[in-house]
Design a protein that fits this description.
Layout (H helix, E strand, L loop, with lengths): L2 E5 L17 E6 L25 E4 L1 H9 L11 E8 L13 E8 L7 E4 L4 E4 L11 H12 L8 H16 L10 H10 L7
Parallel strand pairs: 1-2, 2-3, 3-7
Antiparallel strand pairs: 4-5, 6-7
Length: 202
């Protein structure tokens, strides 16, 4: 099963935090962040990630990191823009290969009237200065599909059963032959229900 490394830079809209070794990954997505690359203490990544040959999609802050890695300059505007906006995209790009070139997007940036996206088709490096992962970006799911299935040539063959196997494997490794005291929290109860057939509970 192919894996995608998601580098969490502090995404406002992120629902999970996933860290995967890059040598087993087929692509990298760098999340957004409430910070800018000029912010003291902001998350950074090794710029060599853009030279390793893997496709990379930088979302918002991730695009800023990519831009900076190649000598681009980030400047801060006078005010921050948040909300839903309409942008015009070049549909000849494999990332924006959609039936329409006008997108409603969720915008969260410190500047306006600048680049909404960047890309290098030969290196398969792309960045967007908006949030395609948010439901209020109608074509966002299509943009992510274009990246994962079109640009990265991945297949959507992941099943819930695959996730169950991974969860049970993690539980087995953590528990081993030991007895475990389980709290009444939702995460613990869910873990118990997942692994009930695999362990003896007292």
């Amino acid at each position: 099963m192919a894996k995608v490394a998601i580098l969490d830079a502090g995404a406002q809209y992120g629902k999970v935090r996933i860290f995967v070794s890059s040598y087993v990954c087929r692509a990298v997505i760098i999340s957004g962040s409430p910070d800018s690359v000029g912010t003291h203490g902001a998350a950074v990544c090794d710029p060599k990630i853009f030279e390793c040959g893997l496709p990379v999609l930088g979302i918002c802050y991730g695009m800023q990191l990519m831009n900076e890695a190649f000598g681009g300059r980030i400047t801060r505007g006078e005010s921050r823009e948040d909300g839903q906006f309409v942008i015009d995209c070049d549909t000849s790009s494999p990332l924006f290969n959609c039936k329409v070139n006008i997108f409603n997007v969720i915008w969260m940036v410190w500047f306006c009237d600048e680049l909404r996206g960047i890309g290098n088709d030969d290196r398969r490096l792309y960045g967007v200065q908006f949030h395609p992962e948010v439901d209020l970006t109608p074509c966002g799911r299509r943009i992510l599909r274009n990246f994962l299935f079109g640009i990265c040539k991945l297949h959507g063959d992941f099943q819930i059963a695959d996730r169950l196997k991974v969860c049970l494997s993690h539980i087995r490794q953590a528990v081993g032959q030991n007895k475990v005291l389980v709290s009444e929290g939702p995460t613990s109860i869910f873990s118990v229900s997942l692994s009930r057939s695999r362990f003896i509970w007292e």
